[in-house]
Amino acid sequence: MRPLRILIVNAKGGCGKTTIATNLAVAYARQGWRVALVDQDSQGSAEAWAQQRETHLAKVEFVAQRRATMYQTQAWRNRLPHGVERAVIDAASVATERNLDDSFRESDAVLVPMLPSPIDIRAGGKFIDSLLNHRVYRSHPVPIGVLANRVVRRTVAYDRLTRFLERLPVPTVATFADSQLYLHAAEVGAGILDFPHDNRFAAERGEWSALLRWLEEALAGKSAPAAKPPAPAPASAGQPPSAAQQPMRMAPRRATALAGRDTEPAVGA
Fold this sequence. Notes:
By secondary structure, the protein is an alpha/beta fold. The chain contains nine helices and seven strands. The chain has one domain: P-loop containing nucleotide triphosphate hydrolases (Rossmann fold). It is about 35% helix and about 15% strand. A seven-stranded parallel β-sheet has the order 3-2-4-1-5-6-7, with helices on both faces. Helix 2 links the parallel strand 2 and strand 3. The protein is globular.
């Protein structure tokens, strides 16, 4: 069976692509999928993470697909270890037109991390607009989801990002906190789901469960084995998350819904 490929991409650097990619690979591995983490970024951050990962943790295959020359073939870029069921792709930071051509052809779902700063909001809006209007996407659309990343709730920046995401024509599928816990996990080649009994990670585990559910629903019907049921998210002291901890869940909006509004940066602004 052909593995399903999830692309983590944004033309704006520093949005946390590698953190999302490594933690998503861990999430799939802990559910029992055979997963590959594919590094297409010239910085090699995902490779550095993989080199630190200890053997007793859930296995994540690592594949370097950084383009050394313009003459490397698409077959080379598509090469994955035999038996891989899910491939999480940490895309190149500079998403050129040719990169997007290749990316759409080899991906089954796309995730776009977005930070809450005004610069990142505006750049992210333009990038999503370029995705939705890309010729390959229009001829062969795949699910696109936005990830609100490194947010601090109850702040002006968080409120600004929330208002902007409500107006996007694609859904926001998870919200991840600006937490040092991600950095501590990355230092040892781990994801936060590698620590299932650490209550410090409880709220974030719920977000990763929500992301996995969205992905498996989005990928349903693709050429792949039947989806494994997601592992239940551990509760924090038996209490449901508060309203402030709830992830942003936005239904897809039509692009025309953005017309006539100029109080916030619009898609493509």
